[in-house]
Design goal:
By secondary structure, the chain is mostly helical. The protein has helices spanning 8-21, 25-42, 46-50, 64-81.
Length: 82
């Protein structure tokens, strides 16, 4: 068991909701936390969402990250020689 400090405005909203729904404040907070956790458990992670797109539009050049700096240097040299 643990305690949580809430801002006054949120505590007032929970009190109003508890009166409206005829539930105690603990039940409302417990339900809200359960919904939050359930949503987090079913939420897909960014990698999973984009996994089918990774590499889909590749240049076919598998060593671009290795040769990137050299490519930039060559472009700069070519521009200077113009």
């Amino acid at each position: 068991m643990f305690s949580v400090r809430l801002p006054d405005d949120l505590e007032k909203k929970i009190k109003i909701l508890s009166e409206k729904k005829k539930l105690n404040k603990s039940e409302i907070v417990r339900e809200a936390i359960q919904e939050y956790i359930a949503k987090d458990e079913t939420e897909e992670h960014p990698y999973t969402l984009g996994e089918d797109l990774f590499g889909r539009y590749s240049s076919g050049n598998s060593n671009l990250s290795d040769t990137y700096k050299e490519g930039v240097k060559e472009k700069i040299r070519a521009k200077r020689s113009d």
